[in-house]
Design goal:
The protein is of the alpha/beta class. It is 45% helix and 7% strand. Strands 1, 2, 3, 4, 5 and 6 form a 6-stranded parallel beta sheet that branches. Helix 1 links the parallel strand 1 and strand 2. Helix 14 packs antiparallel against helix 15. The termini are far apart. The protein binds a DNA duplex through helix 13 and helix 18.
DNA sequence: TGAAATGTTGGGGCG
DNA sequence: ACGCCCCAACATTTC
């Protein structure tokens, strides 16, 4: 039987149910369709990552991949007819855009007498199977994770690697470059300095994390300069390592608080998908609708300063410059810059979400939206409205020596430790911007505005 | 996964 | 020895 295998967010050959089961019986064409018509177009950093992960996957598949750019609903029927395909394998969708696409595709293929087969490649627990006693979805993380997930059936075991793949022989004139994923400007070149984007390296990073870092994860994860986080997020986002594999490996270790903490972070990822699945409106609107009346200031000038890392608040600027330089921000600093944009600059979380979507190599549809709503206080189980991160205190607490701050804000290399997070109070003027807002005033203003909504 | 304001306590200096 | 004040350190409440 000839089959088309449609890769999407799981770009790996190991522990990939799609590839494992399809290659068992069938002759396959491994295919990637870049479709920004039916689903949200990727940001530049994501496209850069996608390009490289597809390159890696294609190499692992003996350069047999077929690359297509366009509307899935038009392209799949063309391929099906051209190669007399009888089955199409697809990753089981959970995001509403992808679910919609799935049903449309199923209908089209039905009419062509082609079977559409899907496997869950992405989630430990399927959103529709985790519900409260009254069958409604959870809205709070802890009960969702502890009661909903951890007491459900154990996630599937990873499937391993197909022993043999039978590729359909045909003249393949397509090339990865046809997808035009890399911007013409070469800004993304600098990302090459920070990432090695192969499936093998994903496994290496995970193994190294488990061997050398995980036991101190709980204690050290909040300190950006220690680099004790796994930094696996972009690999997980593009499915270069299987979440099921990770879960099994983590469970094979002796019980430990640090390990449980790391696992709960994977739980947050599940929670994001879960929320987006059950409440698709939250991708474009506030989860808590009462925030629809909130009057954001949305100053372009302030947004620009934030994006460029010129707010005059060192820890904020370090984070935003790390993002621009590396396509990544340390987790704690993400919360700090997010809180600052939304609560101190009073800029709508959707605008911050969009910037992260464009710049993060790990930009994940569900995690990005759910996390921005969390930090803005508009989401499910969100940070309470009055929780506002103080950039000076956060900087002092989590980057005491300023290693992280001065790495990305070298203007302050010579600044004394004591005033590193508030350089404007020092008589020496550094070649560094003055604060664009008064922190204390902006905090009080935000509290007042949020209180009106409450 | 916060911070600031407010309240409480206890030790030391000092008359 | 005692009472009083000050204030740091810690705890609780409030935003």
């Amino acid at each position: 039987m000839k089959s088309l295998v449609l890769f999407k967010n799981n770009l790996r050959i190991n522990d990939n149910p799609l590839l494992y089961y399809s290659s068992k019986e069938d002759t396959i064409i491994p295919t990637y369709i870049y479709d920004d018509i039916n689903v949200r177009a990727l940001g530049s950093a994501s496209k850069y990552w996608l390009h490289n992960s597809l390159k890696s996957l294609n190499a692992d598949l003996e350069n047999r991949m077929l690359f297509v750019s366009g509307d899935t609903l038009l392209e799949v029927p063309i391929l099906v007819k051209k190669y007399s395909i009888k089955k199409v394998y697809i990753e089981k969708p959970y995001i509403h855009e992808e679910v919609k696409l799935y049903f449309k595709l199923e209908q089209i293929l039905n009419e062509l007498a082609v079977e559409l087969i899907s496997y869950n490649c992405s989630l430990l627990w399927e959103p529709q199977s985790v519900l409260k006693a009254d069958k409604s979805p959870y809205k709070v993380f802890t009960p969702f994770y502890k009661k909903g997930c951890l007491t459900s059936d154990n996630p599937d075991q990873p499937v391993g690697k197909p022993s043999k793949i039978n590729y359909l022989d045909f003249e393949n004139n397509s090339s990865l470059n046809d997808l035009k994923l890399l911007d013409k400007t070469s800004w993304h070149r600098k990302l090459d300095n920070h990432w090695k984007i192969t499936e093998k390296s994903a496994h290496k990073i995970f193994d190294n994390f488990v061997t050398n870092k995980i036991m101190t994860y709980k204690k050290e994860r909040d300190f950006p300069h220690l680099e004790k986080n796994s930094r696996l997020s972009p690999f997980i986002r593009f499915g270069m390592i299987s979440i099921h594999r990770m879960w099994r490996e983590l469970n094979s270790l002796n019980f430990d608080k640090s390990i449980e903490h790391y696992k709960s972070e994977l739980g947050w990822r599940e929670f994001s998908y879960y929320l987006l699945h059950h409440f698709p409106y939250m991708s474009t609107q506030n989860f808590q609708r009462k925030f629809d009346n909130f009057k954001w200031e949305n100053s372009t000038e302030k947004l620009n300063a934030w994006q460029k890392g010129n707010t005059g608040y060192p820890i904020i600027d370090a984070g935003m410059r790390e993002l621009w330089e590396t396509g990544f921000i340390h987790n704690r600093i993400r919360m700090v810059v997010g809180s600052f944009l939304v609560k101190n600059l009073l800029i709508d979380w959707k605008i911050g979400e969009k910037w992260f979507w464009d710049c993060l190599v790990d930009a994940d549809y569900a995690s990005n939206i759910a996390s921005w709503q969390w930090v803005a206080g508009t989401g499910a189980d969100a940070a309470p409205y009055f929780r506002i991160f103080n950039p000076m205190l956060q900087g002092k607490k989590f980057d005491e020596k300023g290693y992280y701050t001065t790495k990305y804000v070298p203007e302050l290399k010579e600044a004394p430790e004591k005033i590193l997070q508030n350089p404007w109070e020092h008589e020496t003027k550094f070649n560094y911007p003055d604060p664009i807002i008064d922190y204390k005033m902006s905090r009080e203003n935000a509290l007042k505005k949020y209180q009106e909504i409450k």
